[in-house]
Amino acid sequence: MANSSAASWYLPLAKGRPVADAALLGTLAETLRVLSPLLFPLVPIVTEEIRNHLSRVLGEPPVSLEDEPWPEPDDTKIDDAADGEMRVVIRIVRKVRNIRGLSRVPTGAEPVATVSAADESAAALLIRHSERIRRLAGVSAVVAGVDLTPPRGAAAGGVGEFQVFLSFGEEVDPRAEIDRLRGESYELVEQVRSSERRLQNRDFLERAPAEVVDRERIRRDGLADRLARIQQHIESLEDARK
Fold it and tell me: 150 and 165 in contact (C-beta within 8 Å)?
């Protein structure tokens, strides 16, 4: 992974893997080796004890962090593709947690997460990381695919080009979910209007670089698409209550 917030999610992911996983143990050991000299000036006694405990566990000779060289960055170890995929996973997990919290579902409930992607490539990414999403989001299963039909009575939310649906059986109040989605749609309406105003501003169009203008158009279209999907889901929830 690249040096980003995605790295802070590694430990929660590692907890669910077998203790005998050599790649996992190697990554965690190397992380401690690199971090120890960095932390030593702040907490010298604790850091050196942790580092030498690692040495004892691995059967290595003890070290003195005071004599250890300062770690040097190595850009060749950065995997931009893996980092980008984990950013998508993290955004989806956060959205699932947010929907769950807003839906006021009991802590012990284990919903099913359905994640609908815009194309096959995005769906493949979801499928590849479905187990990670399941464990981090605390759901019983993850269903991923392209343009999936929203499950009946599911709570919903958008993450960029993805639509996330949580199915809780009868535990979500459809009326409350409709109200929540309407609140989200009102916010999206304002964001679309704000983006439209910016794109209609002559100064912005003339002075901003072309790529900035293009980015804003893509953002507006994405917001509008998400708004349309939410409005469709509100209609489906209302029809189900009739």
Answer: yes
HSE-CB at 60 with a 13 A cutoff on CA atoms is 12
Residues 98, 56, single domain; the answer is no
Residue 2, pLDDT score: 43
Angle 134-89-121 from CA coordinates, rounded to 5°: 105
* Token pair for 52: 């030498």
Last residue of a domain, one of 77, 111, 138: 77
| Average pLDDT estimate for 1-19 | 62
Q: Which of 77, 103, 134 is the last residue of a domain?
A: 77
Residue 112: strand pairing partners: 141, 167
Higher pLDDT, 145 or 225: 145
**Total structural domains within the chain:** 3
CB 97 within 8 A of CB 137: yes
Domain assignment of residue 164, given as a range: 79-171
Tokens standing for residue 215? 């980015």
Task: Report which of residues 121 and 77 the model is more confident about.
Answer: 121
The 10 Å CB-count burial string (b at 16+, else e) for 146-156 is eeeebbebbbb
Residue 136 has which token pair? 């981090």
* pLDDT tens figures, 82-107: 888 888 999 999 888 877 776 656 66
| One domain for residues 106 and 132 | yes
